[in-house]
Amino acid sequence: MADRATQIVNFYESTLASSLIGASGTGTTLSQAPTTDGSSSISATVGDENTWYYLVVAPDTAGSREVIVVKASSGTTITNVGRDIEGRYASTALPEHTSGTIVRMAVVASHIDDQNDRVATNITSLTTAVSDFNTNSASAITTFNGNGTTAISNINSASATSMVNNATDGTSIEVDIDNDFMVVYDATDTTSKKVYANQTNKELKGYKETDVALTSTSGVVTIDLDNGNTGSLLLTEAVTDIDFTNVPTNGVSSFTVKVTQDASSAYTVAINAITVNGGGDVTAKTAGAGGFTMTATLGAEDLLFFLFFGAGTPYLTATQEMS
Questions:
Q1: Is the separation of the CB atoms in 37 and 24 below 8 Å?
Q2: Residues 6 or more apart in contact with residue 226 via CB below 8 angstroms
């Protein structure tokens, strides 16, 4: 037979519909289509032998019983049928099966032959693969080690930059600071090194923060800590509400605001209607509960330092009227 996995179901029986298979016919229509689970029709494709299936026509009539292989089908229509798989009849004297003839799917010798051929083919392929592996593994390992060494030695600032630029977005990753590593390229000795996310003895060089441009709308200033930790606000109205979002719920975070008084009118900044991550209004904590009053000098600059512990009520210190 052939190396293929033909289809078979636990039980299927139907009859030929109005059409029939003549002595030279290669297609017909069934009263009911074969199904895999009682509802899903199985189909066959000419070019894919693994989708073919065998049927026994007139299984209970010895004189006209015939095993066929269905090479193409859709629903109840079967086409491209291989006739007389068992070779019971001369090719010129195939039986004619009229409408109403029983058609049954059963395990036939062809199924076993197909599976045996498949197993034999796979065993041959596996034997060859194992032999090839044993022959080539030593050479492959040597080549791998050589290529790996070359690849590591070729790491430089350009390849490190390329690696970073082509990396996928990792904003959704939750870093385990005690176990996760980062790869760092050391330009001094041109090597890459791994460091823990909580590496000690850290020294930052050339560090800078993004200056987030802040505005107020109807007295409300919205500050998103995902955009940065410093910002600048030019007063154009009285600020009555400050809303912080994306404040980390664990650890300590901060936000520094440079507030510039308007050049023609003095406006106030209230700190008693602050929200954190959508919570209710709170008043920022200040030294001695002294509060905060924006410098009224036109064009004056005040620096406000907000400090959060676990997204709680912020602590506020201010350095005022910078000049």
A1: no
A2: 245, 246
205 lies in some domain: no
What phi and psi, each to the nearest 5 degrees, are found at residue 162? -60, -40
- Counting Cα atoms < 13 Å in the Cβ hemisphere of 133 gives 6
**Distance from C-alpha of 190 to C-alpha of 198, rounded to nearest angstrom:** 23
Name 58's Cβ contacts closer than 8 Å, sequence gap at least 6.
64, 65, 66, 95, 97, 101, 102
Stretches in the chain below the pLDDT threshold 70: 1, 18-20, 22-23, 38, 91-92, 109-111, 118, 120, 124-132, 151-160, 170-178, 197-204
The answer to whether 282 and 276 have CB atoms below 8 angstroms apart is yes
| Interacting residues of 163 by C-beta distance below 8 A, sequence separation 6+ | none
Task: Indicate the helix (H) or strand (E) that contains 207.
Answer: none
Classify each residue of 164-195 as buried b or exposed e, where b means 16 or more C-beta atoms within 10 Å of its C-beta: eeeeeeeeeeeeeeeeeeeeebeeeeeeeeee
Residue 254 and residue 113 in one domain? no
Domain membership flag for residue 70? yes
Q: Residue 11 is part of which domain span?
A: 1-154
Contact 249, 219 (CB under 8 A): no
| Spatial separation of the C-alpha atoms in residues 220 and 218, rounded to whole Å | 6
* Dihedral sign, Cα of residue 214, residue 217, residue 221, residue 222: negative
Within a domain: residue 255?
yes
Task: Name residue, tokens 């030593």.
Answer: 138
The Cα–Cα gap between 219 and 268 comes to 10
The two tokens of residue 278 are 């959508």
Reported as a single tens digit per residue, the pLDDT across 198-209 is 666 666 677 789
| Residues near 270 by beta carbon (within 8 Å), at least 6 away in sequence | 238, 239, 240, 241
Place of tokens 């009520």: 313
pTM (predicted TM-score): 0.43
CA-based R_g, the chain, Å? 40
